[in-house]
Amino acid sequence: MAAPPPAPLAVKRVQKEFKVLAEATSAATGAANPTIAPEIKSVRLVSDSNIFSWNVTIAGPSGSPYEHGFFRIVVDISADYPHRAPTMAFATRLWHPGVDFTSGKICEAIFSEWAPTMTIADALSLVVDVLRSPKEHRQEVNLEALEQLEKDPAGFNKKAASLTAQHALSL
Fold first, then answer.
1. Above pLDDT 70, what percent of the chain?
2. What is the pLDDT of residues 83-104, one digit of tens each?
3. CA 12 to chain centroid
4. Residue 107 is a catalytic residue
5. What angle do helix axes 143-151 and 153-167 make, rounded to 10 degrees?
6. In 133-170, where does DSSP find H-type helix?
7. Long-range contacts of 145-149 (CB under 8 A, 24+ apart)
């Protein structure tokens, strides 16, 4: 059975949010928007015919083992948005307890406080916060990374930084 089509209000809201993020990340306009995390570097549609699937590039947060990398995230928005948080997966490999190392899927618990008043930019900011401080956000998607973070934080940081250097994008 096919998913129901998105409600017109959902389409309108997603279009508006995409436009705000696209303008805030555009090198041409350089539009500063204090509500958008500075680590969000670009946003594009996966397909021009689907406003509900985005490619987003974020910069690894300063002071984290990800700080020298850029990471692509695929954002999928459901037809009942904003009543349900978008789902996200890293298309760029990284080492983190809240991210499945193979699929890139981001732990949905990160969005447990989701409310319809939040935006996709808010959800992306949560992802940046999780990268900034993995010890404070102890999701259990990648149990090996979680165990290493708990038992050997320096080893965790070294492996995360090494995999960032190996897999992260350059802009």
1. 90
2. 999 999 999 999 999 999 999 9
3. 22
4. yes
5. 130
6. 143-151, 153-167
7. 145/95, 145/96, 145/97, 145/99, 145/101, 146/97, 149/97
